[in-house]
Amino acid sequence: MIQNVGKAWRIAIGDDSTSATYEAATIGQRGVFICAHGAGGNMNDKATAATARAMREIGLGVVRFNFLYKEKGRGGPDPMPKLMTTYSAVVDHARREVDTGLLIIGGRSMGGRTASMLAADGFAADGLLLLAYPLHPPGQRDKLRVEHLPSITMPVLCFNGTRDTFCDPGLMKTALTKVTTRWTMHWVEGADHGFHVPKKTGRTDGDVMKEIQDETRVWVEGLGRR
C-alpha cells in the first residue's frame, strides 16, 4: 500500500466523528505510532506536534487525533470508556488506510493512559509508548492508576520526568514490581510533566526531546527484532 506523506482524516465514532491526521516518517518507515494528546491538549498542541515530529524522524509514521470532548470544544475529558472507544476507532481507521508495519499505541499523559487501558484489555499492537504517564493526580499519591498495569503483555517504553508531579518515582518503582511484561522505564532528569527542565540545568526542551527520540529509536529497533 502506498504511504501518504500527509493526510487529513474524518473518523466516525458511533454517531459522532473526530479529526485526525496521518504523516509518514521522514526516513525509511518501520511502523506507525498512534499519538494521543493529554487532557489539556489537542492533536495540534505544541507538545504533541513536537512528539510527532521526533517520532517521524526515527522512522515512525504518526497519527494524531482529537478525543471527542476536545473536538467539540468541551472543557473536561470524556469518561474513560469513551476515550478508549475513540482511540480504538482511530486505530481501526489507520489500519484500513495505511500499511502500519509495527503498530505502536500510546501518547502523552491521559492519551497514553487510555492506550494503556486498551493494552491491558488485550488490544493488538506491537508496543506501548507512554510519555509522562499520569500515575496519580498531583498531590494525591493515594489515588494510583495502576490496577490495570499488570495485565499489559506488550512491550512498554515509558518516559517520565523526575520532577513530574503526576508520577512519584518511588511509587512508580513499586507499581512496576507487579508488572511482568518488558517495561522499559526511562527517567528524564529534572523534567516536569511537560518535559520542561529548569534553565539552570543548561538543557532545553529540544535537548529533552532528543533524549526521548534517541531512546525510542533503540526501543523500536528492538521491537523489529522480536
Structure, explained:
The structure is a single chain. This protein is 32% helix and 23% strand. It is built from 6 helices and 8 strands; from the N terminus they run βββαβααβαββαβα. The chain has an 8-stranded mixed beta sheet, sandwiched between helices. α1 packs across α6 (205-224) and α3 crosses α4. The model has no long low-confidence stretch (mean pLDDT 95).
Topology:
Blueprint: E1 6-13, E2 16-23, E3 31-36, H1 46-56, E4 60-65, H2 68-71, H3 80-97, E5 102-108, H4 110-120, E6 127-131, E7 156-161, H5 169-176, E8 183-188, H6 205-224
Parallel strand pairs: 3-4, 3-5, 5-6, 6-7, 7-8
Antiparallel strand pairs: 1-2, 2-4
Percent range for helical residues? 25-40%
One letter per element, helices H and strands E, the order comes to EEEHEHHEHEEHEH
Unreliably modeled segments: none
Number of strands: 8
The share of residues in extended strands comes to 15-25%
Strand order of the largest sheet: 1-2-4-3-5-6-7-8
Please give the largest β-sheet. Answer: 8 strands, mixed
Shape: globular
* Mean pLDDT across every amino acid position: 95
Question: Class by helix and strand content?
Answer: alpha/beta
